[in-house]
Amino acid sequence: MRILALSGSLRRDSLNTRLLRAAQELGGPGVEFLSYESLAAIPPFTQDLEHRQPAEVHELRQRIESADAVLIATPEYNGSIPGQLKNALDWVSRPLGDNPARGKPVAVIGASTSSFGGIWAQRELKKVLGILGARVLDLELPVAKADRRLLEPDPELRAELAGVADALVDAVGASARESVLV
């Protein structure tokens, strides 16, 4: 099973990228995490190019399409998701009825130095993904005080991340069973 790991942060030493790396270590047998690290290369969305998507957008769409599930870690900026992440999802959404996120199991997590762990951004991102037609998992993992929790071994956080990975594996399995029944 292939899980695309996408960090919504562009920062080199991002806490959310670290969070994804920690999740990747917990994948288990048969689970392969594929990192997407080219978010900064995606140009601003414009409908003028909607039918001639730039190569960077095409690559992201292909990565989503070839993955069985997606795990997104988002920072929180001003109570919402980062603009570049929203921009990338706007590109991916076109055309809405035929986008690679449609029906794809997606989990959203986030890390923040605050006491709230970026929960507002996670909820905003779930809304956007739901509109795209993704199968958004009903779980939350706001990692508060991440600047401390990600520096030292944290068994509780490892267990929570393993739970997210397991939920994605289960969601992919459920999707496969549903498609056989249809």
Structure description:
The chain has helices spanning 15-24, 55-66, 83-92, 119-132, 146-149, 155-181, and strands spanning 2-7, 32-36, 69-73, 105-111, 135-136, 142-143. Strands 1, 2, 3, 4, 5 and 6 form a six-stranded parallel β-sheet that branches. It has 182 residues and is of the alpha/beta class. The longest helix has 27 residues, at 155-181. It contains six helices and six strands, in the order βαβαβαβαββαα. It is 42% helix and 15% strand. It starts with a strand and ends with a helix. It has a single domain (2-181), classed as 3-Layer(aba) Sandwich (Rossmann fold).
Overall pLDDT, averaged? 92
Structural Rg:
16 Å
Shape: globular
Q: Could you say which structural class the secondary elements and strand pairing correspond to?
A: alpha/beta
The second-level CATH architecture is 3-Layer(aba) Sandwich
| Number of helices in the DSSP assignment | 6
CATH fold label: Rossmann fold
Number of strands: 6
- Helical proportion, percent range: 40-55%
Largest sheet, described in full? 6 strands, parallel
Between the first and last Cα atoms, what is the distance in angstroms?
21 Å
Q: CATH homologous superfamily name?
A: Flavodoxin domain
Order of helices and strands: EHEHEHEHEEHH
CATH class placement: Alpha Beta
